[in-house]
Amino acid sequence: AQSVAQPEDQVNVAEGNPLTVKCTYSVSGNPYLFWYVQYPNRGLQFLLKYITGDNLVKGSYGFEAEFNKSQTSFHLKKPSALVSDSALYFCAVRDGGNAGNMLTFGGGTRLMVKP
Amino acid sequence: DAGITQSPRHKVTETGTPVTLRCHQTENHRYMYWYRQDPGHGLRLIHYSYGVKDTDKGEVSDGYSVSRSKTEDFLLTLESATSSQTSVYFCAISDIPPKIGYEQYFGPGTRLTVT
Questions:
Q1: What integer pLDDT is reported at residue A18 of this predicted model?
Q2: Does B43 reach chain A within 8 Å, measured CB to CB?
Q3: pLDDT, mean over chain B
Q4: Which of A44, A48, A91, B29 could be bridged to A23 by S-S, CB 3.0 to 4.6 A?
Q5: What 3-state DSSP class applies to A41?
Q6: By CA distance, what is B51's nearest residue in A?
C-alpha cells in the first residue's frame, strides 16, 4: 500500500528566507507525486506534480519540488518566502496501478512565514 | 476552484436526520471523490466514482452512501447523521491523460455541523 509522510507539523520561516517543506513516500510502482496548498476556509489548490522527466519541477506561485528516487522524497521549496505563503501544505502520491486514480495524502504541514 | 461547486456550503443539522451534499462539475472529468477533513486526521477518502453509476468505498465509508446518475453530479448522503460526522467535506475531480495529468481538483468545501 502507498503512504506519504510529512514529518513536520509546522515550519516557521522568516519572510525572504528560503523554505522547504518535507515529504517522503512509499509506493510499489513508479510514483506520481503532487503538492497542494490550502488557505483558510478554502479547498485544496494544486501546486505542482512529478510524473516523469526532470527531477526538479516548477509550479505555481514560485514553488518548486525536487524528486529524489533514492531517498524517496519530494520536498517542496521556494527560494524566498512571502507572508502570503502561510498556509497548510499537503503532499500526495498516486500508485501507478491505481484504477480509481486515487491519491494518498500526507497529514499536512502548516507553513508560517513571519515578517 | 476549477469548475467545481458544492452545495450547501454550510449546514447545521440534528442527530438522526438524513443529509445530502451535492458536488457539481463542469469539466466533464471521469473521476469524482468525496473526502472529509478533520483536525489531526488530514484528508480521508469517503467514496469515489470512476464513471456514471460506478462507485466504490474509500477509507471511511461507514454511515455514508453516494450516487452518480450523471457525469457532472456526485451526491453524498449521510443516512442518519451523527455528531462524529461533523466535519468539512470536500469534493474533488480528476481525469487521466490525455485529458489532464492525474491531479485532482477540489471544490470549496461544505462545513457540516451535526448537533
A1: 97
A2: yes
A3: 94
A4: A91
A5: coil
A6: A100
Nearest by CB to A100, from B41, B48, B95: name it. Answer: B48
Question: What percent of chain B clears pLDDT 70, i.e. is strictly above it?
Answer: 98
Average pLDDT estimate for B51-59: 94
A114 class by beta-carbon count within 10 Å (0-12 exposed, 13-18 middle, 19+ buried): exposed
In chain B, what percentage of residues exceed pLDDT 90?
87
User: How many CA atoms lie less than 13 Å away from B78 in the CB half-sphere?
Assistant: 24
Q: Region B61-72: what's the mean pLDDT?
A: 97
Q: Which DSSP symbol is given to B71? A: T
Instruction: Give buried/exposed letters for B28-40 (b at 16+ CB in 10 A, else e).
Output: ebbbbbbbbbeee
Q: What are residue A57's DSSP bridge partners?
A: A65
Parallel, antiparallel or unpaired: strands A109-114 and A10-14: parallel
Whether residue B8 has a cis bond before it, omega within 30° of 0: yes
What stretches in chain A show pLDDT beneath 70? Answer: 96-97
B101 vs B99: CA distance, rounded Å = 7
